[in-house]
Amino acid sequence: MNQQTATDGTVGKALQLLDIVVGFGRDVRFSEILEVSPFPKATMYRLLQTLTNQGLLSIDKERHTYSPGMRLVRIGRHAWNQSSLAPLAEPFLETLADDVNETVHLAQMERGSVVFIDKKIPENGFQTMAVAGRRSPAHCTGVGKAMLAFMDDETLNRALAQQTFEGFTPSTHTGPETLFPELEEIRALGVAFDRQEHEQGMNSIAAPIFGANNRVIGALSIVTSTRRMPPEEMDKYRPALSRTATQIGDQAALWPFPIAE
Q1: 86-144 tens-digit pLDDT
Q2: Same domain membership, residue 116 and residue 27
Q3: In whole angstroms, how large is the CA radius of gyration of the chain?
Q4: Is 24 inside any structural domain?
Q5: Residue 58: which domain range?
């Protein structure tokens, strides 16, 4: 979730609340929002009214639930087309998924978190929890580590400061002292691996996507289960993965995509 600063005022509070409502991923009641909201009840009610009046949220008066409004949907669609790699990368993702017959993820980074923006699953491909819009930590995902490894020092330090280093599995990095050596390896190899670090039973190999001026703007991964393939065999996908990441980067070079941070 975006962190509000002291200077953001009412606009910052409203956007923070909008983030909370949308984050539920379903229609949500006032009482549910209040449980996780940092704002007093009266303030939250006033902000919800403003967001509803502006069309950013919609209220079902019979069920007393809130959901994303059509104005937010329109804004999101235009932002998706202009700032997301997904529309540009889609044909390359489909080709890669078909070629390797495994699930492919596309992600970008926002405020230290991985944001999945597309996924392609071939016939009989491995089903993962990632869906467009889902956020995951960077420190324990293949796409996250692939982006972290190629950030400049200032951006990397800022992204690392936003990691919780939560230990999801016994293989998860729980601090920068173990993550830093792996980032060095990733820079040397050009790819990153997730060896059951975020989800038990899941492996991935990921490559960074570079845009103009060699800026890392996203990452691409091939994902499968440990039952389908042991982690040591994932490296066979490196040529196809790196080639696809380069193709997407070449196409994106002339577009002003946000820097991963």
Answers
A1: 888 999 999 999 999 999 999 999 888 999 989 999 887 777 777 777 889 999 999 99
A2: no
A3: 19
A4: yes
A5: 9-75
